[in-house]
Amino acid sequence: MPPPKDVVKIAIQMVGAIPQLIELQQTKPLASVLKDVCDAWSLPNAERYALQYADGRQTYITESNRRDIKNGSILRLTTSPDQEAERLYIGIQSKNVDVKTDSLKKLASLSQDVTFAQEFISRNGLKQIYSIVEEGNDTGEMLAHTLKAFTELMEHDFVSWENLSTVFIKKIVSYVNMNAVDASIQQLSLSILENMVPTSRLLFELVKKEVTLDRLLTHLQATNAELQLKAMALLIALLLSATDAERRDMMDYLREKNLRQFIHKNIIHSCEPLGDEMAHYLYVLQSVSLNLCEHRMKTSMDPYSQEQRDLLQSLRQTAFELESEVPAGSFSTERRRSLCAKEFRKLGFMNNSNPAEDLRRAPPGLLALDNMVYFSRNTPNAYSRFVLENSSREDKHECPFARSSIQLTLILCEILHIGEPCSETAQAFYPMFFGQDHFFEELFCICIQLVNKTWKEMRATQEDFDKVMQVVREQITRTLSLKPTSLELFKTRVNALNYSEILKLRQTERLHQEETLAVPVLELREKLKPELLELIRQQRLLHLCEGTLFRKISSRRRQDKLWYCRLSPNHKVLHYGDVEEGVQSPPIESLPEKIPVADMKMLLVGKECPHTKEKSSGKQNKDVLELAFSIVHDMEEYCLNFIAPTRYEFCLWTDGLNVLLGKEMTSERTQTDLDVLLSMELKLRLLDLENINIPDNPPPVPKPPSNLNFCYDFSHAEQ
User: Fold this and answer.
1) Which long-range contacts (CB under 8 A, 24 or more apart) does 470-476 make?
2) What tens digit of pLDDT does each residue of 80-139 get?
3) CATH 3.40.50.620 for domain 7-79
4) Contact 343, 316 (CB under 8 A)
5) Architecture of domain 83-273
6) Alpha-carbon torsion (180, 183, 187, 192), positive or negative
7) Residue 240: closest CA among 550, 551, 556, 554
8) Start and end residues for every CATH 2.30.29.30 domain found in the chain
9) Residues 105, 88: contact at Cβ < 8 Å?
10) Which of 462, 498, 567, 715 has its CA 20 to 30 A from that of 480?
């Protein structure tokens, strides 16, 4: 008979004593449980003791977290958090260097526990930490433990970062700016500043002033990968907290220092594989840089702005400079206006008498004008060839440069997500972005020539404009999905993907769709589905058994600790626990926490999850909502919360958990995988029917004969 829900069987250890095996009554007050445990070992003053997990993070057991204790858990009787906090509070003030160092080391370890942290902070322990940093000149092991303890204590959000003194902050900054400092201290200092920057405008300005971009660039060029990562984290935090004007100035300075080229050469193409954290920071850097175009994208052209009108006229003058060399006095004002209108029509403006009207639409706004001007000034030969070639064609077949440029700019903004907030978890960046200054403009120069090339291949007329731009969008997205490492490679590949190739790809996809729509084939699909769905279920469970590395996301920092979760080989228990950076696939024995599958009640996703309700509902958290899921267990009172690293992992985990719960797999990945497997299986089954038309309806079954006299009568043969 299974034990009651409110009873868990556990072991309790103590140094120098035989462990106790007890049945913990969850309804019994924790103080009474401790009294019984202490009495069994004849220990007085039970209030001075506490229970904590023997493995993993060794969290203290409290009334609020005791329900997390599972059957088979191993606990340890230890000094209570308040007693330990008092002891360490005294220890870190000791004049004995060894005692002080050991106390700080222990403090750094225990500060991860929220109960201990609360006790230590309530004793004004942070003030002692401040004193050690502000007054001490030590830069060795003692300082490293102090900074580590401070970081862990601040993680619990009991104290505001705005309470830090300027002296303390400048001391932390000095460790970042000094050369002869241990790398671990610089890493911790950079991490502290990274956490500090987003909390207030005042702290942002202080850090920005004290830690120069040149200093951060020096750390980025370090061979120590962890130091490089922390420097990048602080740089990203500064960029995200800056105003638009400050961000633009910072990006301009970083461009002068060739940051992109350094990243392209020494980080993206380094010998070491790119970690998830660095991939995210590169994505954010790319997003921040591209979003500098947002203001121009959302600004309509002002027909009364002389600067903008000059830019517009420069397009006409560059394209038709020979015709424009005729002296101004040779034509009347009316004739000159007529000539300008004719030239703007040749440039492809819809409103040739007032071309500024074409640029009133925002987006793409002035960004389209900027792109056209950049193309005309930086590749004048290609620009002149484009315009003159089309102005000499028949009216019906000319490719309108201005109209195409405006629409292409809009397409590129949509593909590159310009104007959208940075995702909190995304890692998808384009390597070629970091290999080129003026990336957006250079990409436009390649793609506008692609428009002209595709227009000619399609023998398009003005009525086909939308069709051409649709093909161009497909050419660009298909090529970008290949992640070319340079713009030159992108140019080669996108030009190779000509209109005839697009047609072939579309035809292949259409034929594949058509051949699977015949009635007999649809019936065969339905018969094959159960078997293939079972195959997908097994694959999902196998993925859960292999496990996945997840990241905890806090309200202040983007990504915090790492933890790992995996399903036991017998599919009966989910094992999970915190792991260190760099651990790929920890053995199941090293994961101390567990949830029996039998105790799982429900799967929550997106907005239903408790950890997404705690976060703000802004656009920046949309990606978190798409990756969040929770397992409800133990009578719907407790949840294990997940943020999947990718949408792919989200689909596999939610499918696998639904299988364990006996429910249907609902992710979009299930349908994709099922379609692929059905397609492969159908092709194998229909190999013998190649080039044979399959009728929609089976041939009719003939009517039964009027009599069966044609049957041979064996009885006469026997006589």
Assistant:
1) 471/499, 471/502, 472/408, 472/411, 472/447, 473/411, 473/415, 474/502, 475/450, 475/502, 476/411, 476/412, 476/415, 476/447, 476/450
2) 999 999 999 999 998 898 999 999 999 999 999 999 999 999 999 999 999 999 887 676
3) no
4) yes
5) Alpha Horseshoe (1.25)
6) negative
7) 556
8) 530-671
9) no
10) 462
